[in-house]
Each structure stands twice: as C-alpha cells, then as structure tokens.
Amino acid sequence: MRFRNRQADGELPEVNLVPMMDVLMTVLTFFIIVSMTLTGRQITNVTLPQTDGAGVKTENEDKASLVIGLNSENQIVLEDNVIDTNQLSDAMQTFYTEHPDGVVLLKADRDLDYSKVVQLLRTMRDIGGDRVSLAIERQPELD
C-alpha cells in the first residue's frame, strides 16, 4: 500500500487560531459578567455612601445575607420591589428562620437624612434584626 505525500513541496501545516481565540474570549466574557452579577447584589435607585474603607469589617461576606434597600424617596426595597414594614417583617422572619446565622444588609441611599436610616434600623431591631450591617461603597484607590 502506497501513501501519497501531501506536503511534497515542503509546506508546514497551518493551525488557524482565530476561531479558538473567539470561543475563548466569548467564554471569558460570559464568566466575567456572571461573576460580577453574583458578587454584588445591587438595588436600583440606591446610591451608597462612599468611604475610603478604613476600619471597615468584612467578616460577614461568607454568611447568607438578606439585602434590604432604602431609596432616596424613603421607600423600603426588597429585590427591586417596594415593600411596607409588614412585608419587611415577614421577609426578615423567614430569612432568620432559614438562616439562623445570616446577616441582614441595609443599603441606604446617601442622600437620605440619617434620621430616616435610624428609624428603619429601629424598625428592623423591633422585628428581631439583631445582625444588621450597613452597606457602603469604597472609593477607588488612587495610586
């Protein structure tokens, strides 16, 4: 049996890497977008206060958390839906029943009077929220 030499003129075979790179970039982009959406639960119409991050504790990142928002119109927001205090009470009690070590994270708009934030914190305390953390936004570091 005789085989024919396809590369009789001495050319090396070419590997086209462009389609493989396109697939890799698409997969990488997908994972970046998914990881960004999963790491920070955003609440619409809430602009957090900024800080340089000095003295900020981040020990609760590994625990389950319930994110409650307080927007600039002093409305309580849960999963992008405006709720009242009765719904807040139900959501917090359900969360604490399912996650006894969980933490409630309050994201209050920076334009609110602090008295409004304190009022909601008192309401949450009365509901039974003894593990409530306030969310802040860290300023980008300038080098």
TrEMBL record:
Location(s), subcellular: Cell membrane
Keyword Transmembrane: yes
The keyword Protein transport belongs to this UniProt entry's keyword annotation: yes
Membrane protein topology class: Single-pass membrane protein; Single-pass type II membrane protein
Any one Gene Ontology cellular component term annotated for this protein: plasma membrane
Keywords in alphabetical order: Cell membrane, Membrane, Protein transport, Transmembrane, Transmembrane helix, Transport
Superkingdom as given in the UniProt entry: Bacteria
Example GO molecular function: transmembrane transporter activity
Record protein name field: Biopolymer transporter ExbD
Biological source species: Leptolyngbya sp. NK1-12
Highest classification ranks of the organism: Bacteria, Bacillati, Cyanobacteriota, Cyanophyceae, Leptolyngbyales
